[in-house]
Amino acid sequence: MDNDEAWNAFLQDHPIFSLPKSVSGPTGKGNLSLELSLNTLPRFTDINPNDDGPTPSGRRQSMVIKDADLLVASGNEIRIASLGDSKLQKDSPKSYKVLHTPNVSFEIHTIALNPNSKLLAVVGAFQVAVIVLPRPGFMKLVPETIDCKSIQVGQYYHASSSATPIAKVEWHPWGEGGTTLLVMTTDGKLREYDIAVDTEEPQQVLSFVPERKSKSFVAEDLSEREVASFTLGKGHADWGPLSVYALMRSGDIYSICPYMPKNASIPSSYIHALECFVHAKQEFLAQSETDTTNSLSNLYEYQHKYVTSLIKQLPSGAAFPSTSQSFLLHPPNTIKTSPIRQGPFLLQPSPRNLDGSEGGDATDIVYLTFGTSSDEEDDEGETERLGVVLVAYRDGKVDVCLDVEKVEAKWEHRYHKSNDLPMLAVYETIDLGFIRNLNKVSSTSSDSSLLDLLEGNHPVFLRDPIQDETVYVYHAFGVHALQLGGVLQALGAALRDDDNEGEEELTKAVEESEGTTVLSIVSTFSVERQCSNPIVGVAIPNDVYLTYSIFILTSAMRVVCLPLSLRSELDTADESAGLSVSQNRGRLGRSLNQSLGKSVAANPDDPSAYVSLLTEPFEPAPVLTRIAGLPSNPRLALPPSPADAKGEFRLTPDTLRYLGTTFERFMAQIREVQLAYSAAKRRAELQRQEFKRQQDTCQQMLDMIDNLTGSRQPSTKGKLVALNEAQKRLLQREERILQSLTKQASPELSEHETKWFQELKRMKAEVTGSTRYDENSLQSRATLLRRELDRLMPSLKDLHEKEERLKKRLAEKQSIGLSQAFEYGERSSAERSKITRLEKEVLKLADKLEVTLGRPPAPPDNDKS
User: Fold this and answer.
1) Backbone angles phi, psi at 336, to 5 degrees
2) Is residue 810 included in any domain, yes or no?
3) Are 73 and 122 a contacting pair, CB within 8 Å?
4) Residue 833 is part of which domain span?
């Protein structure tokens, strides 16, 4: 199974993708209940807790891949099959096994693996359960059914008749042991359950929708109080990982920061980086004087207390800069107030509405961070990783927003109140083409517009686990791939460029970027029947034993497999939507050519510089560079028609129109491929010519080197020796000429020069003396003075030591008697007389030596009487 055809052929009739009994059974609702059409639209929009049927409404994720095992949710049962064994044993019969979970009796909408792939969250429209997956290898020992432990989560909140619908469920990546499950309901309550501690009561509850005031008469849109989805923030040295973003159905975005699980396993490197971040904020605030300094100072003080409490929970061996490890931490209780809800976010500039749409409800949000794959630990000192927020809507609009102003921790406090709202910079608005495609289809069976089908559409994001710049959007009409690499390359290059002057270069980079590359890879909308099978599951294996590919599952349990290709960081065939590596090389090449041209113009006598025939780097045509190897035309996974069951083929005007459009697209792509082939062929010929020129030039250079190091070397050495001798003769001649010119210009000394030399002789005689033993010379007198000073220094040191000892004794005893004071006075007088005699002797000696001395040191104050 080395290609997508092998996977498709293997999984096409695999029993794991058989329809549930609620659809295909004798009392089932039939395949029509799985299709989105004008007739079945009410099933997709109505929410009935008593009748949660198999209709694929709302958020769906019915397929996940655990290592080499495929798990599929069908109805109220979980099926599992080993793809690794099937890959090795191609001739073995296809089979699957069922996880026996009696507690799961509801229709399964979403399944999610926890970070260590040991637990599986099973989510319905209103209920949540957790299944303990079997150990690896245990599945081979059980024939058909595997008994698994299953636990219902929060039955009081999610299993009652008045339960609120579930918007999204996600495992927290920093939960201790991977057991922290976050459940968001549409009423804005985010409940945190620790499966290892308590499955009934949440550990923490965050509220993104304030309670209604009983006496309030403010008109409010219901969509502003209904949560559609949520996502966790990301970052390295900021509050991003401790932030939660919630998306309302109206499109408003709110956040709460800080939030961490009750039992969290957080890397110590992040805690130390966050401490440095808060400390830098405080230092910057201390140097600035603004009106908001007081409120910000209180806010940063709260943040400092929060981080300090986390630092204290780390063990002593986790101090910076030790190796980063994850440690068990708990939310600090030093701050009694709760984190405040921040928002709604200002989207600047305001996102545009799609043509033909009045604006649909928001369905999903995702927070992405981008950077080199190896800078997770090593590149923390470089530019901060760029955060991108994607928001999807029912009408096919996707807003790409840049998180330029990171959310910071804030609490409910009177000093922290601020009217400033957080902001997201809207980079672009993507149109997935739902409205355009539905308008092209003529509605013959009904007078209603096909645009009503958008009410049953629910786009959902899926991150690529390997390539973080690729995001997939699956919805009721197929799957789209969004490639953000070009956008991020352009912005990253502009941000990292140290030569940018102001914001002009950054603005220019944003304007020149072509935006996100959008590609439709699977289409499930039938033009003939005017209906669609919504996508209910997308999975990408992240296992070395499976091919890097994407598995797509429709509501009719039809699977489509597409291979994906890995791209290296230095791949020159980057997308045209951004600043590629080849463009950077082109800039370097142009700058080198300009510098060479300037050097040639400055020195016209020098040999001409080598000019390459390849002035610009080669850029492959866009038709040859596909996103991760995905097909340029979407694969069809259409609902089966009645004619297919009879083996007939019906040719309708819509079918002809679709075939004509597809034929034109293929012909245009063929022409583009032919043009790309011609361009590549011309480039290859030009590169061969350039290679031949470079070979000839290199051969000439080698010949010149051989000539210089061979036959010309002795003659060159002889010339160098002759030049050296000639240089010496020229220097000697120059010296003689200079002396003769000096004698001719001034043969005798002038009067001032004569006086100057006489003064120098007198000063020399005064310092060194007229004879060797002249006692009146300054040198002899200084030597004599030094000897006398050396003779007196020991006695002076003894006196100084005695004085120090006396001071210590006086300090030890605060008061002394009269007799002792009298005795000390006599000794002091005797010592003073000795010092006076010594001073007189030194003064006499100085007079004899004619040396001026400074004033003697004054006696201390305590010696004065």
Assistant:
1) -80, -30
2) yes
3) yes
4) 796-863
